[in-house]
């Protein structure tokens, strides 16, 4: 028989692991609720154009990484490579831009994303993001709220060694001026650029700054700084963001080379990085985001601004695990039901009892493998059962069962009806 393996770049999140996922997800829900972000769930696949238009046609996502295909109705669709585009599409389709919906309109999402990448640690083909978006305000204070919320979340998970990097991409006027300055600088160096960057040179020179190619790094390091080309209004936006971050005592560094992948970012962009041993001590981005305008309009909505971030859950868990953070809650077993003998009566009573215990709010388990009583007790011990309820034929005939407190190592005989109606009164007897 052929044995199957999971697709390259994917992972099974198995019991023992899934509890950690639940923990970071629950913490995100808790923190985001304090900031009044509500959950949105959009489809995992969308019309290809939703991503192609929003990510930009020189982005890695569109040029190399998209899982796109034609479905049986010949529709060109793609598995979502990131969360923002689908949320923007839904924002427009549900008319949340309307005046009756309070602004900013604030949502969060969590779920799988798909990118055809070369898999390595912290880089998968199916990975997961937790992200947020806030629409309908240009206020620098909202940029800071989004950054503060990401920092708050990571701190509440116990991470302290984080670096917050910010930059401004200015407004359209700032970017046009900077684009020209960058072209003037890069054109004479064109032949030394990586092939990818040479293609980008005239299509989207800013994206060259995002290149991870070693060949490009030196050139990038000496490039002009976008901060020198910001209009007074864009400089003011950045100044207010920095002042507000200072007020909230959020430490940050300004990195004028940071550009981020999306074409529609403007004004504030940010990344939160970790130099955890999980990444060999190298600064690695766990959370990234920024302010964007034009995205809503690009998908057919009104001219409304947004700001948000996306956080990679796999990378987050790598960091948390490297720092030995306690991510799982205890998994107690209140009672294990031991059936003695294989009679139908014992089997029935075992099922009735285990079910009654669950309905009274206890975590309860029984044997389904016809094991001998000794082996069942062994299982109960292994699972850490607090009590065992033993059902034997003789006791059952008298409508009785035995309950043992596994910690106190004491056993008592009690009426079956008390187990099924009021187990609490029994556990109080030990
Ligand atoms: P990178 O520069 O590492 O490729 P990116 O700019 O493509 O990242 P974003 O699109 O900003 O990443 O996604 C936000 C976050 O999602 C990243 O900071 C990272 O934590 C996570 N992420 C992105 N791609 C992957 C992937 N292939 N596997 C796992 N996590 C990922
Ligand atoms: Mg990438």
Describe this structure in words.
Keywords: Aminoacyl-tRNA synthetase, ATP-binding, Cytoplasm, Ligase, Nucleotide-binding, Protein biosynthesis. L-histidine binds at residues 82-84, 115, 129, 133, 260, 264-265. The chain has 430 residues and is of the alpha+beta class. It has 2 domains: 18-171 and 231-322, Bira Bifunctional Protein, Domain 2 (BirA Bifunctional Protein, domain 2), CATH 3.30.930.10; 333-427, Anticodon-binding domain (Rossmann fold, 3-Layer(aba) Sandwich). The chain is 38% helix and 22% strand. The chain contains 16 helices and 16 strands. It has helices at 18-34, 48-55, 60-65, 84-93, 140-156, 172-186, 195-203, 214-221, 232-247, 295-298, 313-322, 344-359, 373-382, 393-397, 416-421, 423-427, and strands at 38-39, 45-47, 68-70, 76-79, 105-114, 126-135, 162-168, 253-254, 265-274, 284-292, 306-312, 333-339, 364-366, 385-391, 400-405, 410-415. It has an 8-stranded mixed β-sheet with strand order 1-5-6-11-10-9-7-8. Strands 13-12-14-15-16 form a 5-stranded mixed β-sheet, with helices on both faces. Strands 2-4-3 form a 3-stranded antiparallel β-sheet. Helix 12 links the parallel strand 12 and strand 13. Helix 1 packs antiparallel against helix 5 and helix 5 (140-156) packs parallel to helix 9 (232-247). It starts with 17 loop residues before the first helix and ends with a helix. Bound molecules: adenosine-5'-triphosphate (ATP) and magnesium ion. Adenosine-5'-triphosphate binds at residues 82, 115, 117, 122-124, 127, 129, 261, 285-286, 288, 310, 312, 314-315.
């Amino acid at each position: 028989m052929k044995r199957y393996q999971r697709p390259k770049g994917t992972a099974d999140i198995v019991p023992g692991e899934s509890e950690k996922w639940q923990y970071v997800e629950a913490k995100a829900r808790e923190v985001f609720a304090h900031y009044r972000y509500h959950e949105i769930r959009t489809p995992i696949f969308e019309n290809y154009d939703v991503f192609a238009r929003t990510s930009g046609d020189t982005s890695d996502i569109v040029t190399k990484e998209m899982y796109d295909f034609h479905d049986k109705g010949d529709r060109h669709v793609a598995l979502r490579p990131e969360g923002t585009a689908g949320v923007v599409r839904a924002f427009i389709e549900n008319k949340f831009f309307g005046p009756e919906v309070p602004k900013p309109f604030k949502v969060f999402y969590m779920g799988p994303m798909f990118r055809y990448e070369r898999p390595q640690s912290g880089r998968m083909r199916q990975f997961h993001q937790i992200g947020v978006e806030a629409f309908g305000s240009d206020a620098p204070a909202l940029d800071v709220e989004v950054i503060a919320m990401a920092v708050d979340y990571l701190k509440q998970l116990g991470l302290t060694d984080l670096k917050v990097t910010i930059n401004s991409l200015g407004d359209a006027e700032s970017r046009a001026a900077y684009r020209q300055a960058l072209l003037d600088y890069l054109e004479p160096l064109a032949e030394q650029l990586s092939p990818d960057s040479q293609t980008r040179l005239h299509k989207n020179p800013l994206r060259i700054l995002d290149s991870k190619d070693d060949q490009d790094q030196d050139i990038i390091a000496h490039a002009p700084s976008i901060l020198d080309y910001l209009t007074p209004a864009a400089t003011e936006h950045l100044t207010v963001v920095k002042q507000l971050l200072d007020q909230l005592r959020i430490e940050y560094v300004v990195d004028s080379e940071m550009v981020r992948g999306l074409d529609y970012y403007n004004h504030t962009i940010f990344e939160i990085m970790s130099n955890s041993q999980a990444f060999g001590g190298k600064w690695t981005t766990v959370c990234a985001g920024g302010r964007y305008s034009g995205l809503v309009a690009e998908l057919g909505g009104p001219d409304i601004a947004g700001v948000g971030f996306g956080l990679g859950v796999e990378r987050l868990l790598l960091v948390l695990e490297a720092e030995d953070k306690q991510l799982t809650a205890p998994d107690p077993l209140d009672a294990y039901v031991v059936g003695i003998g294989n009679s139908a009566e014992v089997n029935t009573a075992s099922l009735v009892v285990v079910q009654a215990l669950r309905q009274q709010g206890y975590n309860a388990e029984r044997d389904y493998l016809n094991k001998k009583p000794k082996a069942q007790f062994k299982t109960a011990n292994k699972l850490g059962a607090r009590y065992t309820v033993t059902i034997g034929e003789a006791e059952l005939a008298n409508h009785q069962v035995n309950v043992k407190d596994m910690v106190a190592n004491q056993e008592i005989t009690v009426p079956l009806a008390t187990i099924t109606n009021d187990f609490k009164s029994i556990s109080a007897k030990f």
